[in-house]
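Changelog note: in this version the structure field was regenerated for every chain. One regenerated record is shown below for reference.
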Amino acid sequence: MPTATTPTPPLLLIPPSGGSFVERFEFLTDVFTAYDGSEGVRQALRAFPRMSFDYNFVLSTDEERTAFEPLLANERVLLPLYCHAFRWSQGTPPLVDAVFGSNFARPLLVANQDGSRERRDFFIYQGRIDFRSGGYRPGDLVAWPLVEARLDTESIEVEHPSPVITTLSATFKAYDFDETSPSWGGPESLGLPLLTENNNFRAAVSETLSFSANTFDAGHLTSFEVRHRKRAVSVLITLTDRQAVAQFRRFIRAVRGRAGAFRWECPLGRMADRSESTWRLASDTVELNYYNPSLAECSLRFVELT
């Protein structure tokens, strides 16, 4: 394990282009349901979500294989957040957009963007970030925020398509990633966050209507008493720019898994009959699947609150 005299090494690996990355938020909530099905109390048990990241790697050089060795020993590394990469113009302060906000002060791993995988030079930027709205400038450097992490497994499967190429998939659990992100700051309705993103219909909306009932034998009839009904809707949300990603991440943190309620207009039924109602997330775990830092998808299931 790293000590005060052995600093945590950075993971100097670049995932192959065209791959996807998963950013996972894991909250924890106690939900107390009354006899009639109402949720009188939903208690958040974590102030911050646990964060984990799924990455795929192709190791084709000796340098890349050497960089991965600390993970095989289950040691901590400074993990680049590849899903939040941004370009940095050489000779200017690094620009971080609204995904992390002006309070972001973690170190950065910086590499020359135009160099080949074999010729990339890396350095770590420890300074405070100069926040400017409007995104980042094009440049010849690429930077990734760093977070201390380790493999979230006791074993890892490594494949060797050829004697010189190694492929692997890995899940990393972040340590002390108590991200200081901006407050919700988005639209609200009835004092609750208003989710404006909706299903992109690349996948069908799935709706589930369920009920809980008491039954007992009353002679030649069976008594059937419905206690409560639940409506749940599954959607696929697509985020197509960094501002949308930033706002959606703030929404996830604002509702804190199943703990918080929000307002949302379900896209089902006749347009004239649609209206906002109050919902919560059905799970404490939310996964964002990034195709690049400006394009992400998220599959969510909502439970309507009555």
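Spot check on this record: Residues 188-304 form one domain. Residues 242-255 form the longest helix (14 residues).
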